[in-house]
């Protein structure tokens, strides 16, 4: 079967979600911006909880999770269709129970957690009662995890963790951390690192500062520099087995990356919507902006870029549902990750340009989108590293030529073709 249509029942839900996000949720972005990294106070809960309840009643809460975890088991393709709507708003993923970094964190606890870990951390996380943080990058290196030095050492029945982590998003608000550390420095890092699950208020977890993104106020940062100083945790804090960190990280980051790509479609579409409205509204040098050829080029290029990206993301989500194994979809997840920052950057930049001075002002959201695109080229690993992954995976399907000439070298192929059809060629020559 090969189909590009959404089934009518789910489309109805998507239409509901679209109107709900625009009318009920997008206004929250204006009164409580940067919300996802600030605690849900009682006042905010009065607004947010009834919205979550409406989502639950529609059966759209954490839809990608199976019913045993409180979702509908709709999978990644349907999540993609929903996430491209939710991507328009910072608050929407929280109100639909599928926000980063919690979705990726929930996924690995569901996959590798013990029953006790699921009860303590996963259940409240999925109920939207608390937030989580993933603490992997270190100040001296993020792209290459083999550089990590944060260490856990056994001490009786406990482990004691020491070291530094950087850019642990949301640690300030999170109830718990998932931290990746070296547990055995004598073997390859691929076998010598482990993940631990621990409450953020464990003694010795020191949030030294919260780094902000460009444009944030200095006191508004949400990416923590954490000093883990003699942090004592029981053996039961290990997530998965000892030495399993790399395998777990791939599960965690595979899901997270494609979820970012899904939401990015929504942001880029919003930029196109604004661009189109503007060029139809503004006249200069005797005609509408929409009539200028360069501006038409902006629109066509943006439409083409987004359409290709969207189809690719939907296809990758479909592959994840089909294979249920991130390793098999690694090449395409990495490709989506590589393309995503450029798609958003280019579209947001063009939309900003056609808005003139207003476009670069703080009265329009474009520069936030452009810096957001830059962040997407780093979060969950830099573009360059993902390009290497894509290239390596693509090359797996090829082998070197058997001799000095390429297999498509025309003289050799032509000789072979001549030999094969020799009798007909002789006839042609004879008839001349
Ligand atoms: C918005 C945001 C949120 C984040 N959230 C988290 C989080 O929650 N938890 C967490 O642990 N981390 C998080 N990070 C950190 C992120 O994972 C790292 O920034 C990323 O892995 C790169 O590491 P680095 O910043 O140390 O850069 P480096 O590793 O120093 O790399 C710097 C640059 O060097 C180049 N480079 C690096 N390696 C290669 C290579 N192999 N080939 C070619 N060029 C290369 C690239 O240009 C790269 O951008 C977040 C980052 C951002 C921007």
Estimate the global geometry from the Cα principal axes: globular
Structural class: alpha+beta
Q: Order of strands across the widest beta sheet?
A: 1-4-5-8
- What is the assembly state of the chains in this entry? single chain
Radius of gyration: 26 Å
For the sheet with most strands, the description reads: 4 strands, mixed
Strand content: 5-15%
Query: What is the terminal-to-terminal distance?
Result: 52 Å
Number of helix segments?
A: 15
Query: What integer is the average pLDDT?
Result: 93
Bound molecules: flavin-adenine dinucleotide
Q: Strand-and-helix sequence, N→C?
A: HHHHHHEEEEHEEEEHEEHHHHHHH
- Helix content estimate: 40-55%
- Ranges with pLDDT <50 over ≥5 residues? none
The count of DSSP E runs of length 2 or more, i.e. the number of strands, is 10
How would you summarize what this structure contains?
The chain is of the alpha+beta class and 432 residues long. The chain has helices spanning 8-31, 42-57, 75-86, 92-95, 102-112, 115-126, 189-192, 245-281, 293-323, 330-354, 356-360, 366-376, 383-395, 410-420, 422-431; strands at residues 132-135, 151-155, 158-169, 176-182, 193-199, 205-211, 223-234, 238-239, 283-284, 287-288. α9 (293-323) runs antiparallel to α10 and α10 packs antiparallel against α12.
